[in-house]
Amino acid sequence: MPTALPNTKVNGDESAFEELLKIKQNLSSELTEYALSKKRKSDTNDQFHDRKKRTSDDEELGKLTDFALDIIKKVKSDNQDHLNKIIRLAVEKNESFLNIWKSLITREDEDSKIQKFICSMNICFDMVNISKIYRECLV
After folding, report:
1. pLDDT value for 65
2. 77: which residues sit within 8 A by CB, 6+ positions away?
3. Could you give the C-alpha distances from 104 to 30, 80, 101, 112, in angstroms and in order?
4. Does the pLDDT at position 54 exceed 70?
5. Which of 7, 64, 67, 94 could join 89 in a cystine, given CB atoms 3.0 to 4.6 angstroms apart?
């Protein structure tokens, strides 16, 4: 059956066509409104999750940087570049550095934490001179 255009008559019953047209426009309006409200809700949820992730990332970076600075305060090295590299790796959130940090943050014993950190840094980042590092408090 051919589709009638809005300004044409359908078998002489123009009022029936106008009613159908109104129903179609209402449905179209409601669907548009529904889609927009879903999009707004989705955008709000995305913003919330983005904000939460940023906060979590900022907290992790703060803890990671604090860890690196604490290590730097507690050790001495003949090679300042190695100590600078430790801070750089923390700030850049280097994946290997992050893994070393995550494996050590649960340890309670500071001496053990530092020894394992130094050993891991020597292996992962080829910091041979860092083996000469010693803790000030032990001297």
Report:
1. 87
2. 83, 129, 130, 132, 133
3. 56, 23, 5, 9
4. no
5. 94
**pTM of the entire structure?**
0.48
Q: What is the pLDDT of residues 61-112, one digit of tens each?
A: 888 888 888 888 887 777 788 888 888 888 888 898 888 888 888 888 888 8
The domain total for the chain is 1
DSSP class per residue in 68-121? HHHHHHHEE-S-HHHHHHHHHHHHTT-HHHHHHHHHHTT---HHHHHHHHHHHH
5 found inside a domain: no
Distance CA 106, CA 96 (A): 17
Q: How many residues does the chain have?
A: 139
Domain assignment present for 121: yes
What is the residue-averaged pLDDT of the chain?
76
Domain that holds residue 134: 14-138
Q: Has residue 1 been placed in a domain?
A: no
| Type of residue found at 131 | S
Structure letter (DSSP) for residue 128: G
* 4 occurs within a structural domain: no
